[in-house]
Design brief:
258 residues, mainly alpha, 2 domains
Length: 258
């Protein structure tokens, strides 16, 4: 018997792993028969097959809503839209901080160890992570999707149970890391050069996020330094307010359409 006749089923790895090659040797000639389902969707053609949604109409609608939100956030967010959102958030938050130093200082002092606030922020980070993992194109790693969707809630529970110290700092750091990606995507290879206002801010978020997740006590130290004196607090608030106004002006005047 030739080498073809000794071959058994061969499983292909990667996006085509559902295909099989069945090698056989009939009496008359040798032949290799390919058994592979024909791709039906663009995701299957590109090799990123999302998990099949089986359930009620409401669950399918939620899945479609999540995919639409992901597409807008990571693919459809324009430079101008990102600038408007970031600019408004900077202006609103820093203006509020400027006029409410005495009210915010006690709350900020307790924030790093505030477990209730940390749980809320971590839950938001979990929902964002689930949206990202369930909708993103994972390429040849698409088989890991289901494992990640299980591990994320498990990790959430373990953090609440065993890493609850400085939970707010860790959760806020995770949110900063997640928020940086859409901003960088919106500004990638866009004109004009003033777009660098967004990447500069995004990389600052990444830097702070990594330190606050890995060394959360730094979050307490940063807050203590910023709130040490009212003059310093107001200077920092004015700096953030000015940066946000510059971003808003650029988004409205220079960064195209929304």
């Amino acid at each position: 018997m030739g080498p073809i006749g000794r071959m058994g089923p061969i499983r292909l790895m990667g996006p085509t792993s559902r295909c099989r090659i069945r090698a056989s040797r009939p009496r008359s000639s040798s032949q290799i028969v390919f058994h592979c389902p024909i791709p039906q969707t663009p995701q299957e053609i590109n090799g990123s097959v999302p998990p099949v949604v089986v359930g009620t109409r409401s669950s399918r609608r939620m899945s479609e809503l999540a995919q639409s939100l992901y597409d807008w956030l990571y693919r459809g967010l324009s430079l101008r839209s990102a600038g408007l959102i970031v600019g408004l958030l900077l202006v609103a938050s820093h203006a509020y901080a400027f006029f409410n130093y005495h009210q915010l200082r006690p709350a900020l002092k307790e924030a790093p160890r505030n477990k209730r606030l940390g749980t809320i922020l971590l839950a938001v980070a979990l929902a964002w992570s689930l949206l990202l993992v369930s909708s993103m194109d994972m390429g040849e790693f698409w088989r890991v999707r289901r494992i990640a969707l299980v591990l994320l809630p498990v990790t959430f529970g373990l953090m609440l149970a065993y890493v609850d110290e400085f939970l707010t700092a860790r959760a806020l750091g995770i949110l900063l890391l997640l928020a940086a990606s859409p901003v960088l995507n919106a500004a990638f290879l866009e004109d004009p050069k003033s777009r660098v206002l967004l990447p500069i801010l995004a990389y600052l978020w990444i830097l702070l996020g990594m330190f606050w997740v890995g060394m959360p006590y730094l979050f307490r130290d940063h807050l203590g330094w910023a709130t040490a004196t009212e003059a310093r607090w107001k200077k920092l608030s004015l700096g953030g307010l000015a940066y946000g106004m510059v971003v808003l002006v650029c988004a409205l005047a220079l960064w195209g359409t929304a």
